[in-house]
Amino acid sequence: MLKKELKELSDHCYEGRALPVWHMEVEPDSLKHVSGFLCDKGFHRVVMIHDTNTKQAAGDTLMEQLQGAGLHVQTVRAPENEHEQVTADERTIIQMFVQTPEQTDCLLAVGAGTIHDITRFVSAKMKIPFVSIPTAASVDGFTSKGAPLILDGVKRTVQAAAPIAVYADLNVLCSAPQEMAAAGFGDMAAKATSVFDWEISRLIAEEPYNEWASRAMHSAWSTCRKETKSIAQRDEKGIRILMESLLLSGLIMMTLDHSRPASGAEHHLSHYWELIFLKEGRRQKLHGAKTGVAAGVISDLYKRYLNDPEDLPVEDWVYKRRLEEHSESMKHWISEMPSSREIGELLRKVGGPALPEELGIGNELVQESLHQAHHLREHRHTGLKLLHLSGRGVPPYPFAQP
Ligand SMILES: [Zn+2]
Fold first, then answer.
1. Alpha carbon of 263 to ligand 1 centroid (Å)
2. Which of 5, 201, 235, 307 is buried deepest, with most CB atoms within 10 A?
3. What pLDDT digit, counting tens, does each position of 134-162 carry?
4. Which domains does the chain show, CATH number per domain?
């Protein structure tokens, strides 16, 4: 699948230029090909960044192969917090800087989303290229440039570096816990609402837009949706499709230099929940598990309260005119969006949570996030922001049955 999409991606989103990711493969035994790539590029001193779990999942095997090829490998384990989780915060990042020698030729990110966020930041700041070795198909950030960091207790996405290569070993990905694949599926399910929010931001606020990217993102999600059974079984076909879709989503964000197609109001809810968990010192939930569940909440909201855009009580005449002009296409998009029930059933099928309460998120927090999350991205329009701007606001959660 990827070859055709990569060519089109370069043509439609990157002015025909070569992508900064020189090589990308999603194959069984991809780990075996990493040493050849590094030797080819003349990288002899490499630093592998991992955590306890990912060392076991892929790090140890990779280490043996790299040493067998005569490379000098140093490993740096990202510290875990009291919940045995790695956080991309100041403490972790400083440790990475201290432990990474300046004479390093290349960094290897061996892990899932957070290990990649840490590595891409260190890579950008130390000006050392990095290779992505995902250990689970759990998130779409592997190939993007954005590194969400927790700085002074607040989440901030910093533009950092994209990997120069991705070696996604299907044997490793298929052996990862089911909740990781379910989270990856949840990050793709988020596209059911994020692509609509991108349409809103274009139609109502004239924000940057790219038609090919919108279609590609929508079709990647549709493909994953058809493969729920094989993703649930974690077979090679399903995990390959999921991983390729996640990689494509990251590349679209990277080439456009913004995350609009992949991240709408459902991501803003998820970020808000994450910040509250952080404040309360709670164990974090997987990013994709939250965005999938949040997509269900947002779909429910839009289908019930945003399906008559021309009647929204908007005062600003520019908005009013644009809403009237585009109400038919907005209604069409909303009708095409899977319902919260459908999204929930798909999430359950792949073994993930479907409702906020299953993530330990109570109705009060959902309600609070529906009121506050649109402030997290002041300059990004979404259906949720539109409801607030129009003065209609959001109804109490859980929403009343129609
Ligand atoms: Zn995401």
1. 6
2. 201
3. 999 999 999 999 999 999 988 888 999 99
4. 2-176 (3.40.50.1970), 179-208+258-390 (1.20.1090.10)
